[in-house]
Amino acid sequence: MYPILLKIGEFTLHTYGFLLAVGFFLAVMLTLREARRVGLDPNVMMDLNFYVLLAALIGSRVFYVITSWEEFRDNPVDIVRFWRGGLVFYGGLIFAFLVGLWYVRKHHLNFRQLADIVAPAISLGQAIGRLGCFSAG
Predict the structure, then answer these.
(1) How far apart are CA 113 and CA 127, in angstroms?
(2) How is 70-117 classified by DSSP, letter by letter?
(3) Percentage of the chain with pLDDT > 90?
(4) Least buried of 32, 33, 58, 64, by fewest C-beta within 10 Å?
(5) What are phi and psi of 115, to 5 degrees?
(6) What is the pLDDT of residues 16-61, one digit of tens each?
(7) Cα–Cα distance, 7 to 94 (Å, whole number)
């Protein structure tokens, strides 16, 4: 276990958060590269990535709060303190999928084409994020 990657004074960089950010970043880069390859406007892909990232973070926190309500019942303000830990992968995946579906329909995009673009990126991001989970213990 290696939960803290770097600590300088009051600043602490947690391995989980760092690897989660790296996973998101590399997934975004992969989707942009693939979008260019198939002739899709990279700006459309970047906008989609932005919305999906927000939805994934919110969804993963919402599902954690639902599954661990006893932890938040007495102090509900802790719900927004996600940096203290508590994200659930499938909650993020569900919210991200729903927001992605909304974005595809709103912009009249080809769902199958986008699914082919994002599927490897989801796997890559999950793999790197999972290394962060292992590091955190």
Answers:
(1) 23
(2) HHHHS-GGGGG-GGGS---HHHHHHHHHHHHHHHHHHTT--HHHHHHH
(3) 83
(4) 33
(5) -60, -40
(6) 999 999 999 999 999 999 999 999 999 999 999 999 999 999 999 9
(7) 34
Residue for token pair 């391995």: 15
Give the whole-angstrom CA distance, residue 76 versus residue 18. Answer: 26
Q: What is the pTM of this model?
A: 0.89
Angular region, 110: left φ>0, alpha ψ -120 to 50, beta rest? beta
- Select from 95, 100, 91 the least CA-distant residue to 118: 100
Distance CA 29, CA 121 (A): 9
CA distances from 72 to 16, 67, 77, 121 (A): 22, 10, 8, 33
pLDDT confidence of 85, banded at 50, 70, 90? confident
Centre a 10 Å sphere on the Cβ of residue 83 and count the other Cβ atoms it contains.
9
Q: What are phi and psi of 6, to 5 degrees?
A: -155, 140
Report long-range pairs for 41-50 (Cβ below 8 Å, ≥24 apart).
Answer: 44/107, 44/109, 45/117, 47/103, 48/100, 48/103, 48/114
